[in-house]
């Protein structure tokens, strides 16, 4: 499976408050992430602040992926997940969470 990375600053439907997120996070299926953020505007400021917190516990400039996932067993349940990419062992990463 290939990962599609798109510069969301070129997507006209993206609210300006979400554009800084493109500099911090990698979006898997960017249009889905943008639509999810548009539907849940409180997440923009939360994600901006969260990145700094993640950096305190992991690398200075962590690679964090955002992905919108639809639960196949729960009709209509859509969630956004953040995945922290790190070179730490799973045990060490778990301790830092």
In brief, what are we looking at here?
The chain is of the alpha+beta class and 97 residues long. 37% of the residues lie in helices and 20% in strands. Strand 2 and strand 3 (78-85) form a beta hairpin.
What does this structure look like?
This protein is an alpha+beta fold. It has one domain. The chain is built from 4 helices and 3 strands, in the order αβααββα. The chain has helices at 21-24, 30-39, 43-57, 90-96, and strands at 25-27, 63-70, 78-85. A 3-stranded mixed β-sheet has the order 1-2-3. The radius of gyration is 14 Å and the shape is globular. The model has no long low-confidence stretch (mean pLDDT 83).
Termini separation comes to: 28 Å
| Strand elements, count | 3
Counted by DSSP, the helix tally is: 4
Instruction: Indicate the percent of residues in helices.
Output: 25-40%
Largest sheet: 3 strands, mixed
Nearest-integer average pLDDT: 83
Q: What is the oligomer described by this structure?
A: single chain
Structural class label: alpha+beta
How many distinct domains? 1
Note the beta-strand portion.
Answer: 15-25%
Shape: globular
> How large, in whole angstroms, is the Cα Rg?
14 Å
Order of strands, main sheet, comes to 1-2-3
Which stretches are poorly predicted, pLDDT < 50 over at least 5 residues?
Answer: none
Order of helices and strands: HEHHEEH
């Amino acid at each position: 499976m290939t990962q599609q990375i798109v510069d969301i600053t070129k997507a006209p439907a993206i609210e300006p408050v979400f554009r800084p997120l493109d500099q911090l996070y990698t979006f898997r299926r960017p249009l889905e992430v943008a639509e999810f953020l548009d539907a849940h505007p409180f997440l923009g400021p939360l994600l901006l602040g969260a990145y700094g917190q993640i950096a305190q516990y992991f690398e200075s400039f962590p690679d964090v992926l955002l992905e919108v996932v639809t639960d196949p067993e729960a009709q209509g349940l859509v969630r956004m997940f953040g995945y922290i990419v790190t070179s730490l062992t799973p045990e060490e990463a778990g301790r830092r969470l």
